[in-house]
Amino acid sequence: MSETEKDWCSRTNHRGHTPGAPRDPIINHYMQFPSREMQKYNNRLPFCAWMDKAWTVMLCKQGLVKKETAAKLFPVLAEAEKEHGWGGEDWIKAKLDGDEYTASAVNFGRTLQEPMWRMQMRAALLDVFDELFDALESVLDKSEQNADVMMAGQSHFSHAQPTTYGAYLLAVHDGMSRALAQLELAYRFLNMNSGGCGACSGTGWPVDRELVTELLGFDETIECTYDCEGSQDEIPQILFALSSLALTVERSAMDHGIWSLEEINNVELTPGWLGISSFMPQKAHSGGHFENVRSGANDVIGQMMTAVITFKNESIQDNLPVYRSPGYVTAGCCHAIKMLGMWANILKNTVVNRERMLEIARQGYSGAPDLAIKMIRGQDYAGRQAHRICCNFVRLARERGIKPYETTGELLDEAARITGDPEPHLSTEDVQDAMNLETFFEKHNNLGDPCPSETLRMLKLRSADLEAARQRQAERRRRIEDARAKLQAEMDAIVG
């Protein structure tokens, strides 16, 4: 033990003694993320001020407010970037020492609700995308590193067919990637301008809603004014997509938690990620942070369920239960970021026990389907006939404690006699070739099979897809920054 480790383990604070290492600080970063960042996304003031600026520019260009009025509003609205609050006309009026004439101009021809919540949800969802891309990259990296690590594939918690840890993670990636596609579609429905809709039927003011769309960085304008306030269906759409993502991640976290059991020992975490106990000094377990991932997923799904219950039986109109529901999205995004950040870093700190995985795979009889194939293709057995013989073959081997790699042709013949079927008379070499795992991936090399070369081919394609997704994200952020720049240029032009 090094002097550093001795110093650490002799501390009076018990935490981390058994692992022998301090807790990774990134754990606290993500565990505290929801409560910390929720305040940022739910601060309406800067988003309200952004809308007020864009609306004032539009009103001025349409000749609906004087330049002098706009020039008085812009400096006040700039202060909103540094403060917390609700914003709006009353906030502006207080900043202008009670100048009601100027403050009220920001609300000519518009309702108070739209589209600030959309902008707040957009900010949160954009951060989810960034975290999701990092998590996807971690899964792909771990998959590539373990493309040749054989393990027992599971069906109903039993040996099914051999696979690799890399192929397993590829399936996890693809589930997360499908959720990404759902999220991008949800973002499209979210990033639409609902401003200028009135309460439901527009406004008698000659406003230019398309200009506001451009100045706020939205991709398009919701045309039907009744739809702007009444529907709000972008809220459950986002939460459905986040829940789809959460389900895939938490299911894999459960798998890893099981595999990290000392009795199984397929994987373990590095010391800085091990859990401890205040009561049991022997505890240095890998399961705790897999539980934190699952807890984060539960919180995401909980926000979705709350939104569904809130929307159910509500009218399609502006009403308070639905109007207050965007907070479920910002909360869901925060919990999703926590879940994804923990998941990505857990994978980076997961140590894979290759030898143990192979040992467990070799103890199972998961080569039996290939033995049946050999009988069907080579000796013209009926499919169910070969299946029946192989079932009894495996049962006899288990009863007698014969390992898969110790089975013989004679045992297969005995199984056929039990079923009353013709004896295959396969050689022991042929039987063991099917049951042993050394040649498994030579035979399982079709499209999508777990042979390492096929896994690496699929990984290459998915890496390219991830890079394309990152480019789309960069374009989303660039569009918003361009809108901010255009808005500033328009305000400068008005002020002169």
Secondary-structure blueprint:
Layout: H1 3-9, H2 25-31, H3 33-41, H4 44-61, H5 67-78, H6 89-95, H7 100-104, H8 116-145, E1 150-155, E2 158-164, H9 165-190, E3 192-193, H10 209-215, E4 220-221, H11 225-230, H12 234-259, E5 267-269, H13 287-311, H14 320-323, H15 326-348, E6 350-352, H16 354-363, H17 368-379, H18 383-399, H19 409-419, H20 428-435, H21 440-443, H22 452-495
Parallel strand pairs: 3-4
Antiparallel strand pairs: 1-2, 5-6
Helix pairs in contact: 2-15, 3-15, 4-5, 4-8, 4-10, 4-22, 8-9, 8-15, 8-22, 9-12, 12-13, 12-15, 13-15, 17-18, 17-20, 18-19
Key traits:
22 helices, mainly alpha, 496 residues, Fumarase C, Chain A, domain 2, two-stranded antiparallel ribbon
Structural overview:
This protein has 496 residues and is mainly α. Among the domains are: 19-33 and 116-360 and 468-472, Up-down Bundle (Fumarase C, Chain A, domain 2), CATH 1.20.200.10; 368-436, Ribonucleotide Reductase Protein R1, domain 1 (Orthogonal Bundle), CATH 1.10.40. The protein has 22 helices and six strands. It has helices at 3-9, 25-31, 33-41, 44-61, 67-78, 89-95, 100-104, 116-145, 165-190, 209-215, 225-230, 234-259, 287-311, 320-323, 326-348, 354-363, 368-379, 383-399, 409-419, 428-435, 440-443, 452-495, and strands at residues 150-155, 158-164, 192-193, 220-221, 267-269, 350-352. Strands 1-2 form a two-stranded antiparallel ribbon. α4 crosses α8, α4 (44-61) crosses α10 (209-215) and α8 packs parallel to α15 (326-348). The longest helix has 44 residues, at 452-495. It is elongated, with a radius of gyration of 30 Å. It starts with a helix and ends with a helix. The mean pLDDT is 93.
